[in-house]
Amino acid sequence: MRSYLLISGLLFAAVTLLHLLRLVYGWPAQIGAWTVPLWVSWLGLIVAGSLCVWAFALARGVRSA
Amino acid sequence: MAVFEALKGAIVFVAGFGLTRLVHRDVAHAAHALIDRLHLDAARKFPHIFLQLAANLSDAQLWGLAVLALAYALLRFAEAYGLWFQRRWGEWVAAVSGGIYVPVELYELARGVTWIKLAALLLNAAVVAYMCYMLWRGAPRSG
Prior knowledge:
The structure holds two protein chains of two kinds.
Chain A (H helix, E strand, L loop, with lengths): L1 H24 L4 E2 L2 E2 L3 H26 L1
Helix pairs in contact in A: 1-2
Chain B lengths: L1 H20 L5 H11 L7 H11 L3 H26 L3 H12 L1 H11 L3 H23 L6
């Protein structure tokens, strides 16, 4: 369980960093014909960052239980 | 403190990534653009030094700086992990990596007192003191 939470946390951390890089350097992103606006990365940053912190918080609880 | 260290790592990671983007490009031009964007006077001491350094940077040096930035970011992430999970080694890393800046900050303060230098020293000294206290105490704590 703890390993799963740690891996989840690391994956969400990676996604958070990618959104941060896109925001800082203004990377374009496209899905099919739709150009993904930059504000989507703000949303992604907050959501993925929150899930990352959540996963690590749960992992810490599992360890101390 | 763990979250703060992770944020520091993320900022340096992003900055290091930016260095790799400057490879094969006009670094001096990018440095000028940055100085302009920050509304700094290029004729003043530190912006001038920054511009001179940027003008003489080779691609190999840029890669070297980017690797150093990545190593620093990884150290900060490891420290954040150690602090978050209340590992003893995490506190050691925090105390030592913060402590190595104290002599430099004291030296800078001796050269001339400014509020920024004083605040940096006090903040860093407080973090190091807290980490030393935690190591000395060795009791369960929150990250």
